[in-house]
Here is the input.
Amino acid sequence: MTELDPVAATLHDVHQQLAALDDGELANYIPPLLLADPSRFGLAVCSPDGRLWSAGDHAEPFTIQSISKVFAFALALADRGLDAVLERVGCEPSGESFNAISLEAETGRPDNPMINAGAIVTCSLVAGDSAEERFGRILSLMGACAGRELTVDEGVFAAELETADMNRALGYLMRSAGSLTADVDETLWVYLRQCAVLVTADDLAVMAATLAGGGVNPVTGVRTMSSEVARHVLTVMATCGMYDYSGEWMLRVGSPAKSGVAGGVITASPATFGLGLYSPLLDAQGNSLRSVRACELLAERFSWHALAVPGETLPPVQLPRGR
Here is the structure.
């Protein structure tokens, strides 16, 4: 039997350790997501040179859901510029659930582009002469970041349209407040369709590594976005990507991340790695239960917290003398 290298061995160990964890629940407001196999659990890591390590159900397809918000935000930034986007969508953590009505009282501006309200406005800021063109550009960017052509799960998309009352209400509320100026139904079509794009944990790892590499896909070598846009996206992921768990996530894991209710999670460390995970059982905040726990274990194992300083680079501690 061939001995695994340290990264592969660690992913395998984490998978084995957490595979039996089953305290979470499947997403219940999009009917097809209730059909997911709750035992599924996959992990993948992509390095800056495009090497991929995987464990478990890393090739299992699932819908990207809210992780798509990252890439729509990147396109809006590229098309409009940071200042213009911030006029319509904020960048502050909401401290609330992903579908909360988190809007500024005076302007109707959503708190950030990682919650549903902000993502709906962000979709409207992507350039295009039609909803189909805007979605096509978002799909193309996601595919370029994954390094392959991606497709839509039409069944999930149809179910998303049928169960979109809350998102539709958010759209009309923001349109009445002036923060959303585009047609509500067309904008929701783009937003819900991007959420129904199929990916795997392997795809998410490469997509995360593309962000970590300043917008350059480490597998294909293709630049998908500017380094400035990638930096802006990673910053908002760090502060807002895990919804009302974002603060504790940064304490425990310490890397920019984004989750989706089908069970996907991406997290990235600039110039170091991209990590993609999949497990459909969700915790109380709507984040993948096993994926969150796996990231906590891996962050501890590889000491990747963004604010950690290697001990050997610190000067000797000089404590003040007591009186």
Q: What stands out?
A: The CA atoms of residues 26 and 35 lie 9 Å apart. The mean pLDDT is 91. The two ends are 63 Å apart (CA to CA).
